[in-house]
Specification:
This protein is an alpha+beta fold and 256 residues long. A hairpin with a 2-residue loop joins strand 1 and strand 2. The termini are far apart. The chain has a 13-stranded antiparallel beta sheet with strand order 6-5-4-3-2-1-13-12-11-10-9-8-7. It has four helices and 13 strands.
Length: 256
């Protein structure tokens, strides 16, 4: 009897062993292995759930030598895809910028001062990534010099994160972005442009009207604190006027 009991016992366990192995294989297979797969996971997780329109006021607190040098109040509005309008210190100053389809227009006292091609990393990885087909986000991220073949993991302020763009999270010389492993939203973006290493933190995520919002953004240039943004008066407009992102309409635009 004893010689027959062991095979019979294993026979009873076989379905459970098979299920456990299958679950482990599925978990391993679903874990991103490249930056491209992280972007695809971000899109799948938040598809039809992220907010296409976003408006807010912000305190822009500038620093020099770790001391506050000045403060301003800005008004901003975003609309998918790749549209962002920022007014510096109120609409009446005529100072601000418009990002429209990867072109940035800079205004001073209501006059267009500059126009140039520019993909905004924060707009791409904080908003557009959840709406674009992942192939479009991947193409733009590569254009921003993120090496999507490089991927590692690290902790950021107590959160487990995917680090895309490097295999060494301590190497800040490489452009990279950090993505919360659980919630799949961006936590940090590091870029290197024209000799300036910029480190941007997306902090204090809060759920507002059912939407996840980073309510504080911190900018560092070459390791020095440069700007801290605090968001308030946050809203998610159902309708957006396309003219608000038309450079020709800058002087007459006011969404308040």
């Amino acid at each position: 009897m004893k010689r027959r009991l062991l095979p019979y016992f294993l026979y009873l366990l076989l379905p459970f062993l098979t299920l456990a192995c299958t679950q482990k294989m599925t978990t391993t297979a679903s874990k991103p292995q490249t930056g491209q797969q992280v972007i695809e996971a971000m899109y799948r997780h938040w598809e039809n759930k992220w907010y296409p329109n976003f408006a807010f006021d912000q305190r822009a607190i500038f620093y020099k030598d770790d001391q506050v040098s000045r403060e301003e109040t800005w008004q901003e509005i975003y609309s998918y895809p790749a549209n962002l309008h920022i007014r510096f210190d109120g609409f009446e100053t005529g100072n601000g910028v418009i990002y429209n389809q990867d072109t940035v227009y800079t205004f001073k006292e209501g006059q267009l001062m500059n126009k140039q091609y520019s993909i905004h990393p924060l707009v791409l990885l904080s908003f557009d990534v959840y709406f674009y087909d992942p192939a479009a986000t991947i193409r733009k991220a590569e254009e921003l010099n993120f090496d999507l073949s490089q991927l590692t993991e690290a902790n950021w302020k107590g959160r487990a994160a995917y680090v895309v763009g490097t295999t060494d999270p301590n190497d800040q010389s490489r452009s990279q972005f950090w993505v919360d492993k659980e919630h799949l939203y961006v936590l940090r973006i590091l870029t290197n442009n024209k000799g300036v290493a910029r480190d941007v933190e997306m902090n204090n995520y809060q759920e507002i009207e059912g939407n996840m919002v980073a309510t504080e953004i911190v900018f560092k240039n070459d390791g020095q604190l440069f700007l801290r943004e605090e968001y308030y008066n946050i809203s998610f407009p159902e309708k957006i006027d396309p003219n608000w992102f038309d450079p020709k309409q800058f002087s007459t635009t006011n969404w308040k």
